[in-house]
Each structure stands twice: as structure tokens, then as C-alpha cells.
Amino acid sequence: MQYYRVGKPVRDRLLDLSVESNEWVVVGADHDTMLAQGFQSLDVSAGLYRDPQTDEPYQLARREVREYNSGSTILEISARADLDSELAIRDLTIHAMALDDQDHLIDPFDGEEDLQNGLLRHVTPHFARHPDYLLNIGVEAACLVKWGFHIAHGTYGLLKRMVAEGRVEQLPPASWAEAIRATLVEGATPSECFRVWQRCGALATISPSLDQLYDKEQAHESEQRSPGALAWLDEAVRAGRGREQILGDWHARLGKDAEVIYHQLGI
């Protein structure tokens, strides 16, 4: 068995940010092995466990395979899966890095370089098969834009393809609401999340009423000014207001279409 620290905690460590807990990938183990080692099972089919001592998550390594009969792609937990195959199914290169037990960085997709360049870039085309990744990248953009992070041109193209293929409709409204709440935290710029969704066409699909607030002549400009109702979210976060307080007050800022927008976003 081999244990590797992965994901956002590795990213934050490289950014010299505080890391409160770790995420782990385990290579060379199965369900019985994890239970024998004292881990608690959270989801057997997903290969997800937790350490009862630290409460940190442990993921059995997975790999992407194509089913013979249907031709669809699934994630498989098997002895053939290794660290590289697990990192390959992550959303962004800056989350597809790992640290071994000697603190050596393992970086098969150049995440460290993207981190230094402030680039949010998808790891592989696997990204397009995960609608929730479209949500994630908006949240990450909102949280990292203060350091100059921006989305790679090719990744924007992939997001637009996901919208065109109807991936957005696969997400329940509650997922959008959860993502929006994730941007209402100290240091984040919530309007950047909406700007990402608007530029790739996702916002027009989930909330046409909110999308209409944007200046369509500037729709594809990287420096497009956020509508006042969304810029207000940034101000509310900077003022230190709580999430539910912000969402309650935001309703008034949206005017006559507030109820429609809240319903569309699952709030």
C-alpha cells in the first residue's frame, strides 16, 4: 500500500496557504485491506474511506475504462489503477498533483507550472464527462481570481462544448445553489463565478433571467463589467456577511425577477 496526499491541500501548500486537513489516494489496496487497516467505509462503490483518528478522506485509486457493451466510460477501482490514472480524472491540473511520503512532488500534468502562471486548465478531455466540473471551475475562479488566476482558452472551449451537449441540464438546481454558496466566503469574488458560467453559455441555460442582466455586447470580453446585482455580492462578501444573510439580501437587489431567478438557481 502506498499513500499520497493529493488535491486542493497540495495546491494550497504550494501557494503557502494554511492547510487544515489532507486528502489521500491509496494505491495497492482494496476494500478488505482498508477495513483491516482501521479505515471506515463511506462509499464502497466509490472506494471512499475515512480515517477515524483524523477524519481525513482516503480514496482508492481509480482509472477510466470504456464498457465493452455500451461503449460508455466509467471509473473503475482495480489493482491496475495507479496514482497517474487517479490524477488523470481530476478536474484541474492544479488539483492533479500529489506528494509522496518523502514530500516529493508528483506532477504528471504540469500543475505546478499552471499554478505559477495562474492558469485554471482541465487535465484531460475526461473533464467534459463530469457536469459538476463545470460548477467547480466557476467556484475555483471565484476563489482564486484575487491572485490573478484565469481559465485557459482551451478549457473555455471545453466548457462551451459541455453546454452545447446538454451537460448543464444533467445538474439539479440544488447543485447550482450549493456552488453559489461555496463562493460566498472570505476572500472570494462571487461575480467571477457567474462571469465564467455566463461566458461559456451555462448561465443562459440555467437562469435566462439572470443571464439577461449582462451586456451582450461585452459577453466574450475578459474584462466585462459584472452587473450591479452580482457586483453587490462581492461587496457583501468583503463586508463579512454570512452566506444566508447575503442570499436573503440579494433577493431585494434582483428586483422583479428575484423569485424567478431564485427558483432557477435552486436557492
Automatic annotation (TrEMBL):
Gene3D superfamilies: Beta Polymerase, domain 2, cca-adding enzyme, domain 2. Keywords: ATP-binding, Magnesium, Metal-binding, Nucleotide-binding, Nucleotidyltransferase, RNA-binding, Transferase, tRNA processing. GO terms for molecular function: ATP binding; metal ion binding; nucleotidyltransferase activity; RNA binding. It comes from the Bacteria. InterPro entries: NT_sf, PolA_pol_head_dom, tRNA_CCA-adding_enzyme. One of its GO terms (biological process) is tRNA processing. Residues 5-121 form the Poly A polymerase head domain. Belongs to the tRNA nucleotidyltransferase/poly(A) polymerase family. This is Poly(A) polymerase-like protein. The lineage of its organism: Bacteria, Pseudomonadati, Pseudomonadota, Gammaproteobacteria, Thiohalomonadales.
